[in-house]
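Task 17 of the worksheet. Students: predict the tertiary structure of the chain below and write it out as structure tokens. Keep your answer in the requested format; marks are given for formatting as well as content.
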Amino acid sequence: TCARYRRASKRATSFASSSVSSSERPCAGFTLIELVIVITIIAVMAGMVMLSMNLFSPTRVIKTEAERLNALVRLLQDESILAGHEYGLIVYQNGLRVLEWYEPTAEEQTKYQESINKGPNAAQPRQDGTLTQSGTASFGENDELPVLPGYWRPIQNRGFKTAHLYSDQIEVLAWVDGVELELALLEDDDELFVQLEELEADLDSEETVNAKLLKMQLEAAQVRPTLLFLSSGEAVVFRVRLTWRDNPDLRFEISSDIMGNITYLRAGDESLE
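Model answer:
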């Protein structure tokens, strides 16, 4: 009897110990910290998706371009007066290009004039200001030598791109003095400006300076800014309109009157026809 009691007691003790151990084990699942981390990651990813959708929406894209153009026009207008420098803006069907008026330095003028008046093979000036490739110089010490004229070139050292390309969905229209302009494509002028930059970079060569300067003069003569920003404060009357092709109601316009007052019209403004 005692033996049976001891065996039953031992089994009861063993069962109780096992029950206590089972109740002390933690249940499988997520901790509060793990749940917070998962929820945070989901929220961040959802926010990124919504942000990316908003950044590339038509309204956002065209509004950003219009605000960029508005800020650029105002900057060039202020800079031209404050710095006493001339700036130009070429408006394309699909983008913009910022220019500055460059006056050749005294050193460049000297090289140009020396190359004209050097020996029997010196180049001769034509009536249009360009030079022949060879000839006999006929300039004396008291004669006034031709002067290398200034020219338009891509703006330099201003901290922003000289050329900017628009989305294919943006239609650009421009008027100057009430006349609608026929706009070219930005890429049509790329080769011309690349040549100008290469020529400027090679002006230090004594052997080629005359030919390079002349070629630059001829190449730069093709450059015609759409909008001018003059140091005298003289204003050009213009309008530039950006429209989303698939939604004509989504449009913005930047304009300037004869006094140089710049107006920025947003989609929905009554004065924007």
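Marker's comment: The first helix runs from residue 2 to 24. The chain is about 40% helix and 20% strand.
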